[in-house]
User: Fold these one by one.
Assistant:
Number 1:
Amino acid sequence: MHEVFFKKLNEAISLTGEEEAIFRTYLLPKKLRKKQYILQEGDVCKYSIFVEKGLLRSYTISDKGNDQIVQFAPEGWWISDMYSFITGEPARYNIDALEDAELVLISNPGMEELRKQVPKFLEFSFLQMRNAYIAFERRLSYMVNLTTEEKYTKLVQTSPDIVQRVPQHMIASYLGLTPETLSRARKQMSNRK
Amino acid sequence: MHEVFFKKLNEAISLTGEEEAIFRTYLLPKKLRKKQYILQEGDVCKYSIFVEKGLLRSYTISDKGNDQIVQFAPEGWWISDMYSFITGEPARYNIDALEDAELVLISNPGMEELRKQVPKFLEFSFLQMRNAYIAFERRLSYMVNLTTEEKYTKLVQTSPDIVQRVPQHMIASYLGLTPETLSRARKQMSNRK
DNA sequence: GGTATGCGTTGACATTTATCAATGGTATTT
DNA sequence: AAATACCATTGATAAATGTCAACGCATACC
């Protein structure tokens, strides 16, 4: 149980058996079927979610009804509405499953305890957060500086797996484009080469 | 010396005199004149920069020659090219002073030592990073979902000081707009009200 | 005091992207 | 096996934004 979770953790910080035992008391397993929600906008995000298996996404719905995908989370990734998770404010994001999924949930108090009781986990959390920060910073600059074609090409390079597993209109949403625009850009590209 | 630095730190984690002494051995003060660079694209970002006084910005220059401002850093804020800082790879960003500035620099080894020797600082770094992450995540969704006018209004609400201190074309760059588009949006808004 | 530079605005026009609508194909459901 | 939902593509058109150029104003510089 929770093999992927501990594998990922041990890659970064090797846990002793004792520490692993502490972790286990805070882990909440959960299965999610395709299309099921684990978080809906307006509710409080009570859990930080680790994906053991399957694929989740977080997304917002704007006033005009456009939705934008904030993040995809395949096996081994974390996902949540971080702001809601730490403040208890209503969530801005929806999170649901794009494929049947197995999850590990940890509450915010659980996280705090783990960071306290297992100092290595604080270190881990810091590094995680730093990487997430870098990724978003970069994504922001791509969003502004790249053309439609470049955005798509970049994503294919960096996350070919996601591009394959996810319908194209969701890729468009993630890139901040309409499905039509992405479709046309892809056609342009294939005509040229 | 370094009053703002320790004030900010003590707001979050109260340091003992001993801990403060440890910090002081890793701090490198530096003054920067308006328009001077502290980091240029292609160089390695050797320091994490805390702004005691003045105003810095980080920005990228794209292939097409457009520049985009990634971040403004007024007093009390941190700035760096995080990726370059931790990996030693060449920086993607330029960082320069928009106003005469006084800085506190810490190297990456310095940071690592401080996180080790002062565990509270690791906690602090984690929380910092988490906030920075949330800010960028939000900014990304604003970038995609908001109209030009909404982007500007939102920035005026959240950072009125920055909007006042910085030329308008830099605000436009930060928001991912051309100066012309921002100028016209502002005119629209003032006509309406 | 005069010149150069930086900045915001405006106009005309080009380009990109979004929107709306229709179609055909594929997968899913019953 | 038929019906339904989902999805990618395409065309026509509208809307938003970028680009290029010119101007006026203020400030900094010599």
Number 2:
Amino acid sequence: MDDQAIPLDAETKAVEMPEDHREELRLWLRLLTCTTLIEGEVRGRLRERFDVTLPRFDLMAQLDKAPDGMTLSDLSKRMMVSNGNLTGLVDRLVASGHIVRTASPTDRRATVISLTESGRGEFCAMAAEHELWIADLFGGLTEKDRGDLMRLLGKTKLSARRAIQGEGQ
Amino acid sequence: MDDQAIPLDAETKAVEMPEDHREELRLWLRLLTCTTLIEGEVRGRLRERFDVTLPRFDLMAQLDKAPDGMTLSDLSKRMMVSNGNLTGLVDRLVASGHIVRTASPTDRRATVISLTESGRGEFCAMAAEHELWIADLFGGLTEKDRGDLMRLLGKTKLSARRAIQGEGQ
DNA sequence: AGAAATTATTTTAAGCTTAAAACAAATCTG
DNA sequence: CAGATTTGTTTTAAGCTTAAAATAATTTCT
């Protein structure tokens, strides 16, 4: 309980006793900015070029990776959105003929969602252009940059998951 | 129009003629996952701990950095959301007493928004905890990781801005 | 100064999103 | 096997978000 020296940082300014985390905050804000920027651009291009919304595109992208369809629960986990959200989104995509609901043969609670043939066709056309847009948006990064960023984001994902998972303990 | 050799990659598999950009796509999806994961957690904690929504918090965070207030246009640029979106958000924050609208002395079109005293007080309390949550979520990264990630995201931001800016040419 | 273009904000219509509650079917457990 | 819990989905209420059109004030350009 003796007097304690006020810690000084490299620039010899007194720092707050409970260490501040402005650096992490800036990192988070920058991450958010990147995502918002790219997402907004992709949203706009999807609308202008294909008259489709981003959520619709995202949903179809998940289904495209699952030839045998997926349940709503699986979809909601994959897309990281709430269950209730999907109900409406699926309704609209069924109405526009892009996807179909099928009763699950094994579980009478569940419905399996899958792309219709025309839905898959439309999605593939959009996905091909979408991939070019993304490549363009990330075009300022070198191959090494992209590898490094991929690795660091992987680490970030793990870090966040651990922090989220561990909170209930 | 002679026959053309199909290029082979390092693992000796045929690759698509128009080069594919799946790597950039994976990078984008991972970036999006990180943001969605962290954003969802922060949203939930703000609600549980302070009964406040993330957009409200974000708006107050911007105002906190502008002691003399900001116009709606400035706010919408900073927050990267549409103008129309802010109208409603501001209405609700005015109704709850967190912010006030003041007529701009120089421009009769504009309104200046600023935090009320109690709004600033409430925000500061939330911001202090929020900063700890963020530090916790990024806790799995070393100081070097954070520096590297910061730099790479800076480069990503520039890359995206350039791609967006340059599209109209 | 007056017309034209720009800027600041609001309104509108549609769709997205969430949390919480409700419901139904499947699984677990004593 | 019956009651309790979990799981899959929908509903509800509230708020968020966008794009596009409308309105109003300022600035620009003859």
Number 3:
Amino acid sequence: MEFRHLRYFVQVAEDLHFARAAARLGISQPPLSQQIRQLEDELGVRLLDRTSRRVTLTYAGGMFLDAARRTLAEADKAATVARRAASGELGELRVGFNASAPFIPQVAAAIHAYRLRYPDVQLALSEVAGPAQVTAILADALDVGFLRSAAAPALPPELTATRILRERLVVATRPDHPLAGRAGLRLADAAAHPLVVYASDRSGGFTEELFALMRASGAEPRIAQTVREVSTLLGLVAAGVGITVVAESLCALQSAGLVYTSLADDSAVSAMWLVHAAASPPAAANFVAIVTEVAG
Amino acid sequence: MEFRHLRYFVQVAEDLHFARAAARLGISQPPLSQQIRQLEDELGVRLLDRTSRRVTLTYAGGMFLDAARRTLAEADKAATVARRAASGELGELRVGFNASAPFIPQVAAAIHAYRLRYPDVQLALSEVAGPAQVTAILADALDVGFLRSAAAPALPPELTATRILRERLVVATRPDHPLAGRAGLRLADAAAHPLVVYASDRSGGFTEELFALMRASGAEPRIAQTVREVSTLLGLVAAGVGITVVAESLCALQSAGLVYTSLADDSAVSAMWLVHAAASPPAAANFVAIVTEVAG
DNA sequence: CCGATCGATACGTACAGCCTATCGATCATG
DNA sequence: CATGATCGATAGGCTGTACGTATCGATCGG
């Protein structure tokens, strides 16, 4: 049985007239009769009762007509699915992001724009620490990932990173802290006070990068407390446990016990990167395109 | 796109190896490569990434694989549906029956046996008066019908009637009625008493046949009351409104106010017939076969 | 009774799908 | 690093089959 048989049969069943059906199908009548007969022989079932004057569906023919239509529709759907999947309009996209990514307006805007443009792509968002994202993408557990890194992250050749945002670092303190609001504040000043920082396994390298910057400015940082979440970090700063240094976009999180003070150092910058496989699935490539367009 | 393409693609996707897939498909490797390529060209989508060492599904290929499997399954189902419908194992069967048919054990047994043997046939049972059944079958609103008639019913040539039961008539009266239990009771005796009978439009000809029998026995029947249902008929007899004559199988309906007395006349018989179109749908033919086997 | 209609049959043809043979690329191995 | 094995792609020839034209046989209306 081939699709030809189904297409021909459906047309004959609709017209109940071999010559007309053949004309619609763009063939002549004899081969149409042959193909219908061939289909009946293969099924071992008479689908049409035909005299030289009238063609009617048998009971089995009526049942088969429905099933044949369903089969043709399913085949159509298969072709459409393939094309849409290839163009990235259909499927699933697994996006990883670190703790600070959601607070970046450009990232949120890009995700929103992507959802509007590709509504049939199932977005699977998951919070993953920076380095773990790279591993996850390599293991095909993730398609793309947002991670923070001052410089371009070192990646295996099959992965690509695009910088989507470059931002300054700020110091977060209690309002009554001596550093609060001080103009021309420098990293070395901040390093003189005990710090609340992310635990290394959660920071995705941010803490290490921060410490490296401080040491480069000639000060040795001291850890007051390590935490695992943004809310804890800022909560403990507001409680006076210590101060911390975060990316400027985190200023979106305001609180009565918190003030953010700019750092004057040229080196006090950080960046968000979008990491993806060089051979990305179509949906991922579209996502990268939208993110670089909106946020880049 | 033809089924060939789907079958070939599914096999390659399962083996991820052209030569092995070709062997399983019973063809050689080159035409398999050609057909896959043809499929990809038609869809405009690359379904497989292939180097000379490794074959992998693209994302679109994976989505298409599912859809292709569904399409092939749908086609299989279409063939099965046609065959099962042709053999009468699938579909709908519309059975008409008159008021007395359900009380006949053979009819009930036949319907039960049919349900067991053909569980996937949707049985649509409907109560239809005898002559209306013939009209309904001719109008293709009914497939088969049970009706009561002393002699073979007059039918157009495209319909066939099979007698499935021949039974004697009995008189139904109150227990204190003078005819109750009288040995050798004859139709002429019964005709001497006022009768409760079905209204003509509901009786399906039974009342007319009964009156003809009574007149043939030399008596003129008198109507005490006409009714539209079996329960009303027997209820009014039990209430003493009159007596009635019914088929023996109705004795199954017992009541405190009712007794049945046999009629001695040779002519006091009735029969149930199964009517069906000569060109019945398969399910109807099977039904007729089972009924004649069980009840005939 | 005759012509029109319509599906089936007969038969020739062109193309497509399959075959075998071979190539080119990649990878494992000594 | 050279060599052989593996595997998909390509080339070219052959055959089956789906389609075309011509015609037949049956049925129905006028």
Number 4:
Amino acid sequence: MNAPHSEFLCHARGNCPRLCSGQSAPAALARELERGDLLFRSGDNAGALFVVRSGAVKTCRLGEDGSEQILGFYLPGEIVGFDAITQGRYVADAMALKATQLCRIACQPAASASGDGSLLPERLMTGFGQEVQRLQNLLVLERCSAEQRLARFLLQMADKQARLGRSSRYVSLPMARGDIGRFLHLATETVSRMFTRLAGLGWIRIEGSGVEILDAAALAGSRPQPALRRDRPALPQAA
Amino acid sequence: MNAPHSEFLCHARGNCPRLCSGQSAPAALARELERGDLLFRSGDNAGALFVVRSGAVKTCRLGEDGSEQILGFYLPGEIVGFDAITQGRYVADAMALKATQLCRIACQPAASASGDGSLLPERLMTGFGQEVQRLQNLLVLERCSAEQRLARFLLQMADKQARLGRSSRYVSLPMARGDIGRFLHLATETVSRMFTRLAGLGWIRIEGSGVEILDAAALAGSRPQPALRRDRPALPQAA
DNA sequence: CGGTCTCTTGATCTTGTTCAACAAGTGTGG
DNA sequence: CCACACTTGTTGAACAAGATCAAGAGACCG
């Protein structure tokens, strides 16, 4: 998470004037996919962003229980792959929904590009990528039971605080229960009940305006019900 | 949406070496807020990003029904305001959860920064900002009833297709019902039921692998139940 | 034409919301 | 210093949206 961030300088390549911002323009396509083909896979080294020229692409993440979580559908003109900017590797899978043509935009990791004092690439891109990933994580979190949502939230806060050098055992919560509810999309009452439940399980201890984490592993593994039946991952036919 | 995008070049200002990436370092703070103070408001002209130095900030959007949707909590070291990059104005509200110090990073809209052929700022930043907003919208969407989620999804797809010059009346859906479900976080059966319901209301007509939109206004206004009681917006005491 | 998917519809169950009441904490003023 | 108001957090009971289980209807394809 706090790993040395790589920076990117991106150059269009092939016949893609201005990142293919228009629709037409014929040739020099970088990738052609059939329905079900993978454009990239979570974990792949990210050398590029992709602009959809024709067809359609979906991006998704696999929940740890095997359930598929779709993050977006991309139609022609839209750009896929922003999640990779921060770490230089994709975080989601991307798959063609039908025959699809894409334009590849090479992104070479490059140290601090514009050396004119402007710090556009320096940390900004990293922050941007983190924001995208944070939102993606939030969407994934949204797909869990109330108990799991709160458990993850607490771990997340603990992690944030650990990064600041504070103890990750005692998590201070500057926000009200209602705020947590509006963040996790739970009624205030449910948030309260889940705090009580986690404390009852012996996983946390409520302590002033924060909580003490007693069993982080249990919190992380909390998975009472998948909340949504895991269908078979994806497109059945096709490679 | 498709408005001429402004580009940004960002320079640190004040005592913020490397975007305040560390924690300490004393002086020259740009903003100091008390609990409940607004850092910026949705619609404000976005002249800057902010790095949290101490304290805590929440960002939120107001649903059209007045309910508050929290998009994130930001602790020291984190950057607030990325959602504004694309349009030059903030899309969310940001409020201090307690006494908070922030470091301001001025972002002057600047045309196509690095003129060396690299098109980093050219469309990339815009795309990045759009991705952030897309994810934020997705999170907001997540907070609606099944009917509303599907209705919005269809309008979204219609909008995308309209931008491609295709008809926005007939929406082709290249993905399976199950895919829509995994995107909207609904069981396949529920997606199917909602299609049937919307068709029964006369708002859409199912047509091959897509739908014809008969009453876009009704779809947009679809709001059977708020799905979550709207609490009073936010922090009660404090300015 | 049979097999395999996808979509649709019905019945039942679970989770989390909603309504309601109460406890605990904080601050103010008499 | 304590009573009172006000806010935040906790707990109980009833309800509802949507998931799950189950089964059947089309569609597509070899």
